[in-house]
Automatic annotation (TrEMBL), chains A, D:
Organism encoding this protein: Flagellimonas lutimaris
Keyword line: Nucleotide-binding
Keyword Thylakoid attributed: no
Protein name: Molybdopterin synthase sulfur carrier subunit
Family the UniProt entry places it in: Belongs to the MoaD family.
Gene Ontology MF, one: nucleotide binding
Automatic annotation (TrEMBL), chains B, C:
Subunit and partners: Heterotetramer of 2 MoaD subunits and 2 MoaE subunits. Also stable as homodimer. The enzyme changes between these two forms during catalysis.
Protein name: Molybdopterin synthase catalytic subunit
Organism of origin: Flagellimonas lutimaris
Top EC category: transferase
Pfam families: MoaE
Keywords: Molybdenum cofactor biosynthesis
InterPro entries, per database record: MoaE_sf (IPR036563), Mopterin_biosynth_MoaE (IPR003448)
GO MF term set: molybdopterin synthase activity
Lineage, uppermost ranks: Bacteria, Pseudomonadati, Bacteroidota, Flavobacteriia, Flavobacteriales
EC number: 2.8.1.12
Catalytic activity: 2 [molybdopterin-synthase sulfur-carrier protein]-C-terminal-Gly-aminoethanethioate + cyclic pyranopterin phosphate + H2O = molybdopterin + 2 [molybdopterin-synthase sulfur-carrier protein]-C-terminal Gly-Gly + 2 H(+)
GO BP annotation list: Mo-molybdopterin cofactor biosynthetic process
């Protein structure tokens, strides 16, 4: 199963990447994927990072093949 | 009328003041309008630990952001009796003193227009995936967080 | 800063949209500003008993009105932490679709600017001796009353 | 004693004048003067006409020589 992970703002900076394709077997929720992606990164408040799956905020869902997952640090628009 | 055509909210670079005049001028033929309410966000030279912000570099999860802007518009038109609503948000490096957000609503009545603009501003701040890197004069930076 | 120089609020004729762009542009050097809130009143083509308003002819007890505008400014600066506030109101015959009121406040923070503009608009409607003759297409008229 | 009376909006229209100087003897309050000025005029709601004495809303005051009294119909600014 493949999902595309997008990194933004301070998460992209800490990870030093903006996008990657991850492959894995078995079931994985969005928040499990987040934990995995942020593991080892220097981010002060990981709880403040929200997850969007296919452009909807959602950390409960179990990921499906082809999903687009985004890791979103606190919003700063306006 | 505007309700039906979803337009792109993001613009590259600062929003020029002339854009405001043009938007207003474009509404002078809509004679059911009695009130326009406008909000403008301007980059502030905040001081943090003795260093001064010189610009904010805005990035966004653009596809999701445009979708959320659209949902906010739909919610605003459902909630308020407005005739039109326009939103523009900057992307890229916006210098201190320049405009990064332009919200413009119109209605027959003042209270509705004012309430709608307020709704847009709060919703945009809370819900749209936009990220801001505050750049200091020594080229260091910190990440902005909306309160 | 603006607080100290009482300026004339009344202008003859409609307020051109360019005035808004100029006012905004003039504030881009004030780097402590984070938010501008603008309200514009536009003449509406109201229908009354089958007749349509084509213009409003504004008159005022000018000396008292300028004094009241000044008092409202003073109250606003006492009440809200705004950096600037500008008000312009038209006198004379203003056609449908044209602007008759321009309120413009600026602050470090959005909620303050928005609340201050709202305060100005409500106070102006309630307290300033301005009178409006709504002129219909057949040259008859009725006197406008603020609600 | 002389006071200047200013008429505005629908009051000026009904009175067909915008200003006049009135002379009288004895005491007169602002609201008594208003009553006198509006007497016989075709104004639907005379109660809605406010009085300003020397540019302050006031209908209680006793007028003094040289006062400027204004008869103000409902406001319509903004």
């Amino acid at each position: 199963m493949k999902v595309t992970v997008k990194y933004f703002g301070l998460v992209a900076e800490a990870a030093d990447k903006s996008e990657e394709v991850m492959e894995f077997n078995g079931e994985l929720t969005a928040s499990e994927l987040k934990e995995q992606c942020l593991y080892g990164l220097s981010i002060a408040d990981k709880d403040s990072v929200q997850i969007a799956v296919n452009q909807n905020l959602d950390d409960k869902t179990t990921l499906k093949d082809g999903d687009e997952v985004a890791l979103l640090p606190p919003f700063a628009g306006g | 009328m505007d309700k039906k055509k979803p337009k792109k909210v993001f613009v590259q670079g600062a929003i020029p003041p002339e854009k405001i005049a043009n938007s207003v001028a474009n509404h002078q033929s809509k004679t059911n309008i009695g009130a326009h309410s406008i909000f403008l966000g301007q980059i502030r030279a905040d001081e943090v630990d003795g260093k001064t912000v010189t610009a904010i570099d805005y990035t966004a999860y653009e596809e999701m952001a445009e979708k959320v802007f659209h949902e906010i518009r739909e919610a605003a038109f459902a909630k308020f009796d407005i005739t039109c609503a326009h939103i523009y948000h900057s992307l890229g490096k916006i210098k201190v003193g320049k405009l990064c957000l332009f919200v413009f609503t119109s209605s027959a009545h003042r209270k509705i227009a004012i309430a709608a603009t307020n709704f847009f501003v709060e919703e945009i701040k809370a819900k749209v995936p936009v990220f801001g890197k505050e750049i200091f004069e020594d080229e260091t930076h910190q990440w902005k967080v909306n309160k």
